[in-house]
Amino acid sequence: MYGLIGPNGAGKSSLLAVLAGLVRPDRGTVRDVPWQRGEPIGAVFGDVDMHRGRTVRETLLLRSRLVGHTPDEAESMAVRVGLGAVLRRRVAALSLGMRMRLSIGVALLGSPMLVLLDEPMNGLDPDGIAWMRGVVSDLRQAGATVVVSSHLLGELETMIDDAIIVSRGEIVCVESIADTAARGCDIEVDEPARLLAAMSDRGVPATMRGRVVHVEGTAPDTVRVAVSIGLDVTRVGVSGRVLESLYGEVASAEFESEGAR
């Protein structure tokens, strides 16, 4: 499960379009993707690919025929994406959230092993976002590769294994969410100033907020330091907002680069 993050205009949607075979890359090659073997992929690029005059049922039937599925499977997909009660409603009459659900349903027909999702949570309410997490989880269990682009970094972080950071049309780096999270922890102790000083003495970056110290190190190592200097540890946890931190690093680098010009 991969997440694409980066500023607007960084090239995230373009990269997804290249992976989908819709756009030729300016340089480099695309290899070993299902459409090169004649296999279907699933792709959501908003709701721009759906004819506004067709009904929900007609939209799903068209895709099901293309991938060799039956009408019954198309209607089952409508139920799966929460649109079973509006099969006869035209796309133009659907809300933004419903159109996004329909786009996702179209993408999932054919059981694709590569699914590309560009801002799939646009227009979804909280229940819809929770449903989207379930969809990604089901795809993970089915062994599919999923690439998601979203500015909802907190939600994206709960879905993916690796973050692909894009800036100015290039992949800046690929970071494991688990590894990045493991590099930082929040620890609550009775004397945070002493822990802050101890980490500074060891060359480990740390900041303090109230009784909580955020340490740019692993939780086990931090706890060992706290215990070694006689502190009472009341709480420790892996720091959240990993993607926000990564995004901030990219944005800061871009700002500094612009300033140097």
TrEMBL record:
<dbReference type="InterPro" id="IPR003593">
    <property type="entry name" value="AAA+_ATPase"/>
</dbReference>
<dbReference type="GO" id="GO:0016887">
    <property type="term" value="F:ATP hydrolysis activity"/>
</dbReference>
<dbReference type="GO" id="GO:0005524">
    <property type="term" value="F:ATP binding"/>
</dbReference>
<dbReference type="InterPro" id="IPR027417">
    <property type="entry name" value="P-loop_NTPase"/>
</dbReference>
<protein>
    <submittedName>
        <fullName>ABC transporter ATP-binding protein</fullName>
    </submittedName>
</protein>
<feature type="domain" description="ABC transporter">
    <location>
        <begin position="1"/>
        <end position="193"/>
    </location>
</feature>
<keyword id="KW-0547">Nucleotide-binding</keyword>
<comment type="similarity">
    <text>Belongs to the ABC transporter superfamily.</text>
</comment>
<dbReference type="Pfam" id="PF00005">
    <property type="entry name" value="ABC_tran"/>
</dbReference>
<dbReference type="InterPro" id="IPR003439">
    <property type="entry name" value="ABC_transporter-like_ATP-bd"/>
</dbReference>
<keyword id="KW-0813">Transport</keyword>
<keyword id="KW-0067">ATP-binding</keyword>
<dbReference type="InterPro" id="IPR017871">
    <property type="entry name" value="ABC_transporter-like_CS"/>
</dbReference>
